[in-house]
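Standup, Tuesday
Yesterday: got the pipeline producing structure tokens again.
Today: sanity-check two examples.
Blockers: none.

Example 1:
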Amino acid sequence: MAVKENVNLTKKSPSNGGVFKFFREVKAEVKRITWPSKNETKKALIAVGVVVLIYLILVGGLDYIFQNLFGFFLKLK
């Protein structure tokens, strides 16, 4: 049987410190965030806009094509 050394067997209750401790820890974590610069944010926004426009054109074009194809085949009956 293996021997466990340096094992901390004390269990901490989740309510130690309560809500105030939780919000203090959240505040400390938010301070550690590295926020993007204004230029990086602008570049990301432009990239997202371009991708959305390409997707919009692609899906809209396919919708138009399939709408006309189904309309053409349904009128043949």
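Example 2:
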Amino acid sequence: MKKILILSFVLLAQRAHAQSAVATTDAIKKAVISAEKKRFDAQVSKNYAILEQTLSNDLVYTHSNGNTDSKQSFIQSIRDGKSKYDAINVEEQKVRIYGNTAIINGVCMIKAMNNGQTINTHLKYTDVYVRTGNQWQLVTWQSIKLAK
């Protein structure tokens, strides 16, 4: 009888732990998606303080045209008006968590101006966020244009 009680207790404890882990993972995924939305909104609104906060100092940002920016050059292109984001609409996102690293695979529609040229592009992208303390920061972005 004791063995059955102990086994029951162990199984209940394992189940509770598994449910807690799922809840924690879901909360982390929501936090990463929130950081991504905050960054997209900051690109559109030209909120440089938020961009400074959400972009890692060693950011590698590879655009769909193959050009690459650092954190400094990416923010500067928005300041200078070379890149002007009118809207970034997320259509799909899948987040995977690996410790303090999150990978997002997504699809979005970008409405922007790049060097005076209008861009309305569907992008498929992969980006990586790393958590430092309580802050999720973008460390890499790479996107490709989807066929129309």
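Quick observation on example 2: Residues 2-45 form the longest helix (44 residues). Residues 2-145 form a domain with the Nuclear Transport Factor 2; Chain: A, fold (CATH 3.10.450.50).
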